[in-house]
Specification:
single chain, binds fe (ii) ion, Rieske Iron-sulfur Protein, about 25% strand, four-stranded antiparallel β-sheet, 21 strands, Naphthalene 1,2-dioxygenase Alpha Subunit, Chain A, domain 1, eight-stranded antiparallel β-sheet, 10 helices, binds FE2/S2 (inorganic) cluster, alpha+beta
């Protein structure tokens, strides 16, 4: 439970808010590379951390990100012309490059130096891992590159990055990723084997283990490592160890194929989930993966104030109730919603856009959720006092892995010591 004031502090990420300033210290995913497929192709409208921006791939292939509105008379740059390494406003022809420099101002006389004195807001980008990343913080604090999370370093044949627009505050997504207890319920399918067909369901070990996992969370320099221990009938423990990476990434355990997420605030009531499947040791079967968890579709979404953004919207939305099948639910499928991602989406969007955490009643299964909230609140408060976070400028700290294993070991600390190698990404020398 949080007080209403703490809840506001945790969930607001617009310019000038403490949490917004913390997020602006990190490189953050902004677009899938595939959303901007061609040089000098059409721009995309976007909003991130409550700022309206427009992104385009320039003639050289670099992605420029500018204020969504022209500094002349605030016309929308979305309708602009992408030409010769710049974006030209179609209202009066002013043209800007990816650094925000005004490179042409044809509506002013040639002798005017107005052009030299005018810039547009522009943010640096970095493209890696099938994602265009943005840095929105102070230039003197800009980390050299985005975090070295394992999926960003894999070849495209071993990772699949999807993007789904969500109608909820980012923190509800973060909390879902570090809440292992819900998997025993939300993601289960208890129907006979023959009926399960294409339905995705959680690892069968969840059926066997205890429904009330014992949790341990430990702060790390990059975020938090958190273990959920379930007793199996043979006396061993099924351990799932999740990595939570500042400010809003996680790495989800799995056998062979693992998961990763990022929850990026659009504004205070919407966010984007990046969902990554990674298979570090062998190429993935992309068709099979697509069938199990379909990509979003490029679509427009109208935000509350009427602003339209170009984003990726999954099949399941609040409006279609995630295509819940009540007959399937009656037959033993726990939710009646067929994909795991949409099961999660139904829960976290349905809590209301920003859940009122003063109304919660947290139990022993919520230890990691509590720890993550405390950590973010502390880092934002520290930053207000001038104490900078360490993680953004140390991308190598992010080279960690989640764990999924069966062990007789009952204690988290010794378990991590025994599997220290497996929880680090091997680095080529
Ligand atoms: S409003 Fe963009 S050039 Fe005039
Ligand atoms: Fe889930």
């Amino acid at each position: 439970m949080l007080s209403p004031e703490e809840n506001t502090y945790l969930t607001r990420t617009g310019p000038g808010t403490p949490m917004g300033e913390l997020f602006r210290r990190f490189w953050l995913p902004l677009f899938l590379s595939s959303e901007l497929p061609e040089s000098d192709g059409p721009p995309l409208r976007t909003r991130i951390l409550n700022e309206d921006l427009v992104g385009y791939r320039n003639t050289n292939g670099h992605v420029g990100v500018l204020d969504a509105y022209c500094p002349h008379r605030r016309a929308p740059l979305f309708y602009g012309r992408t030409e010769e390494c710049g974006l030209r406003c179609v209202y009066h022809g002013w043209k800007f490059d990816a650094d925000g420099t005004c490179v042409d101002m044809p509506s002013e006389p040639p002798e005017s130096d107005f052009k030299e004195r005018l810039t547009i807001k522009a943010y640096p980008t970095y493209e890696v891992g099938g994602v265009v990343w943005i840095y929105m913080g102070p230039r003197e604090r800009q980390p050299e590159r985005p975090p070295l999370i394992e999926w960003t370093e894999l070849p495209a044949t071993r990772r699949r990055v999807r993007k789904w627009f969500h109608e909820n505050n980012y923190m509800q997504g973060v909390e879902g990723d570090i809440d292992t207890a819900h998997v025993n319920f939300l993601h289960m399918d208890y129907r006979p084997e023959t009926e399960r067909n294409r339905i995705r369901q959680a690892n069968p070990l969840f059926h066997l283990g205890e429904k009330h996992p014992k949790l341990t969370a430990m702060d790390t320099d990059y975020g938090m490592i958190y273990g959920g221990r379930r007793l199996l009938p043979d006396g061993n423990y099924y351990w799932r160890v999740t990595q939570w990476l500042l400010p809003a990434f996680s790495l989800i355990p799995g056998k062979g194929r693992r998961g990763g997420t990022a929850w990026i605030p659009v504004d205070d009531e919407h966010c984007v989930r990046y969902s990554i499947a990674l298979s570090p040791d062998e190429d993935m079967n992309m068709e099979q993966d697509e069938a199990r968890s379909p990509s979003g579709k490029p679509q427009q979404f109208t935000l509350k104030d009427g602003t339209i953004i170009d984003t990726m919207i999954p099949y399941g939305t609040k409006a279609n109730q995630y295509e819940i099948d009540r007959a399937m639910q009656k037959a033993g499928h726990y939710t009646g919603i067929w994909s795991i991602a949409m099961q999660d989406k139904a829960m976290i969007e349905g809590m209301t856009r920003t859940v009122d955490r003063s109304l919660e009643h947290l139990g022993s299964s919520d230890i990691a959720v509590i720890a993550a909230r405390r950590r973010l609140l502390k880092l934002a408060r520290d930053l207000e006092q001038g104490i900078e976070p360490v993680a953004p400028t140390h991308p190598e700290l992010y080279r960690v892995r989640p764990l999924d294993l069966i062990s007789p070991e009952a204690n988290f600390g010794p378990l991590l010591e025994q599997h220290a190698e497996e929880s680090r990404v091997p680095v080529a020398i």
